[in-house]
Amino acid sequence: MISAIYNFALTTGANRVVRGARIEHVCGDPSLGPEKDHAYGMRIVTTALDAVATPVSRPTLFDPLAPGPALEPAHAS
Amino acid sequence: MSRPLRAVHYVNQFFAGIGGEDKADVGVSTRDGHVGPGRPLQQALGDEAEIVATIICGDNFMSEQPEAALAEIGAALSRFAPDVVLAGPAFGAGRYGLACEHVCRHARALGIAAVTAMHPDNPGATSGKREVVIVPTGESVTSMQPALERLARFAVRLGRGEELGPAELEGYLPQGRRRSYDRGRPGWERALDMLQAKLHGRSFTTEVPYNAPDQVRPAPPIADLTRATIAMVTTGGLVRKGNPEKQSAANAARYHRHSVASLESLTPEQWEAYHAGYFNHIVNKNPNYILPLSFLRELESSGRVGRVHEQIYALPGVSTPVAAARELGRAIAEDLKQAGVDGALLVAT
Questions:
Q1: What is the pTM of this model?
Q2: Structural domain tally of chain A?
Q3: How many CB pairs under 8 A join A and B?
Q4: CA distance B295 to chain A (A)
Q5: In a domain, B217, yes or no
Q6: Chain B touched by A70 (CB under 8 Å)
Q7: Domain total in chain B
Q8: Cα dist from B117 to A51, B76, B122, B176, B230, whole Å
């Protein structure tokens, strides 16, 4: 699930949660300008694809803004 | 003593002794007096009420042709003119539970008091508990006797036109209604009592119960994304421009499925958001923010994912009761599974 209110998604039991940008523009941010907006959206969507390819055992956050190329799942609790 | 109440009992083909699954498509029939569990039910009712007739219907007939079944049941109820209808107990049996809920709701619409009994997780209880008085039972028939006794007790009270108190005190399933009543002591006193009980490790009963969310077993990861079919679902209220399907902006009763087989991206000329829970103007300029088709197409072209599923799923995910949302989600998931989709990206606003 891609959601800007990712804490809510985690506490209600979604197992793979990707941090979205904002409620009004979940997969990107128009205020960044077209190029960066596209890069950010792409980062969110590829993070979501990484999430569905990663084993999880409980609600887990995948943060597209997390530094580093490797994605370490961060746990909710 | 006043005359006994006239009661009508509803049972399925199994409890009527007609047969099991092989007879589940039998239509509506009636018998005078009690049948099957109606006998101990009559004992539980004692002199307070008499089961004048039993209405029987096969579970499949009821679930496949509810209108026809309920029309016949309605006619039978007019004929028997009961003070109260008792249905079940259905325990954990899903179709039977739904049938009992339908029959009780229909009886209530005809102005007849009605009560049924089933396990709280029975679909009949999760779908209809707001309108019908449902007495909780165990999951299997081994809890028949206590279930019948409680069913009888509620039937007599409802048949006499008594108003029930709150569900938590009376012991029927909560109907999700709030009614004003006087608890006798002001809220701050009750809150302090609870706080004290909590600090001293004593048990207490909250007045605002918290419904813990379901735990869902995580799906196994996709082994190879480059060969996977990925679908997209959004609760952001995506609709075709002008909302020709007349989707609601909140409390969705249905979702819509659209083909994007020929599309590279969602354009504002063809798509927009209709959702009462956030400002839609940004999405209306670029609908890919709530359903990332443009991104996924790029990733499909570059070979990062195998295939973008040609159907997308959309509804507004705001002000929707959990039970309704669960059913919508289940239906979408089943559809995706049948289509052989490997994974889905759900964008929630």
A1: 0.60
A2: 1
A3: 100
A4: 6
A5: no
A6: no
A7: 2
A8: 43, 21, 10, 17, 43
